[in-house]
Amino acid sequence: MTASQPMQGNSTSTVLGRRLGGELIKLRTAAGMTQPQAAKVLSASTTKVAKMERGWVPIRDPDIRALCELYGATEPTVVGGLLELARIDRERRKVKGWWNDLPRDMREYIELENVATSIKTWQVSYVPGLLQCPEYVHALQRDEQLAAARLERQRRLLDSPPLSVYAVVHEAALRCLVGGSDVLRSQLEHLVRVSRKPHVTVRVLPFRAGSHRALGAAFNVLSFAEPGAMDVVYMETPLTQRWSEGGEEAAQHAEIFESVAEAALGPDDSRAFISAIRKEL
């Protein structure tokens, strides 16, 4: 599933909305029901039910209760979980953040990052965005609006409570001369400094660690405090963005992250390693 979801009128398909819709589809399918049957019990159109199931529109509590009754899903834990998921989704849709004017493919990720409690990030080619110094940001991102957005995102590290960041960075990212030697030197100094914060962990996977199944692609795992909000994995390529919401794939990425973290240097050794690279510049 890509992050660049199309928009329908004023509606936007959100991650939590799609998850809620997916749960309703599972219940409907298990009950042997069709969308027209669901629409009839809601006194709505089949199109509306389709939008609800695809996460395009917020879902009201009475509609969730009616659908659960129709599908025979009356267990309080099931109904309560769906109601809580719908509540969180409705609240997030109302948020008007500084990121509203950004391109569509950036908005949803920043909205998620803004409410996440922790992020695990594995990076192969460059320093994670939340840990980049201004000079490095501008060397990577020539679009001023997007560069400013990346720096604004870093305010989450100053929140109370702050966003928890656990970053594993490949040695290649630390040696790539983004912006030249002076910029990279500033970035490495910044990385050492920010890694000393109690809510930030930075570990380096050196070249000598050899091959690893995580070398193919970078990814982020976002976690949330709210009940029902499963981990979300975000992967980015030069041309597209991809989401993985909960389930086996998200669990596999979490496992891959833990394995690459175990293969990496510890936090203190990583700071020493980063400082040694800086001195070589």
Briefly summarize what is shown:
This protein is of the alpha/beta class and 281 residues long. The protein contains twelve helices and eight strands.
List strands and helices in order, with pairings.
Elements: E1 7-8, E2 11-12, H1 15-30, H2 35-42, H3 46-53, H4 61-71, H5 76-94, H6 104-115, E3 118-123, H7 134-140, H8 144-153, E4 164-170, H9 171-175, H10 181-194, E5 200-205, E6 219-223, E7 232-236, E8 241-245, H11 247-263, H12 267-280
Keywords:
two-stranded antiparallel ribbon; 6-stranded mixed beta sheet; 281 residues; 8 strands; Endonuclease, Chain A; alpha/beta; 12 helices; 14% strand
Explained architecture:
There is one protein chain. The chain has 281 residues and is an alpha/beta fold. The chain has 2 domains: 84 residues, 434 Repressor (Amino-terminal Domain) (Orthogonal Bundle); 180 residues, 2-Layer Sandwich (Endonuclease, Chain A), CATH 3.30.870.10. Helices cover 50% and strands 14% of the residues. It is built from 12 helices and 8 strands. The strands form 2 sheets. The protein has a 6-stranded mixed sheet with strand order 5-4-3-6-7-8, sandwiched between helices. It has a two-stranded antiparallel sheet with strand order 1-2. The two termini are 41 Å apart.
Main beta-sheet strand count, sense and barrel state: 6 strands, mixed
Give the fraction of residues assigned to helices: 40-55%
Q: Determine the mean pLDDT.
A: 88
Compute the number of strand runs. Answer: 8
Q: Sketch the topology as an H/E string, one letter per element.
A: EEHHHHHHEHHEHHEEEEHH
Structural class given helices, strands, pairing? Answer: alpha/beta
Q: What coarse outline follows from CA principal-axis ratios? A: elongated
| Oligomeric organization of the protein chains | single chain
CATH superfamily of the largest domain: Endonuclease Chain A
Number of helices, where a helix is a run of at least 4 consecutive DSSP H or I residues:
12
The low-confidence runs, each spanning 5 or more residues with pLDDT under 50, are: 1-10
CATH structural class of the largest domain: Alpha Beta
Alpha-carbon Rg, integer: 21 Å
Q: Order of strands across the biggest sheet?
A: 5-4-3-6-7-8
Gross CATH architecture of the largest domain? 2-Layer Sandwich
Q: What is CATH's topology name of the largest domain?
A: Endonuclease, Chain A
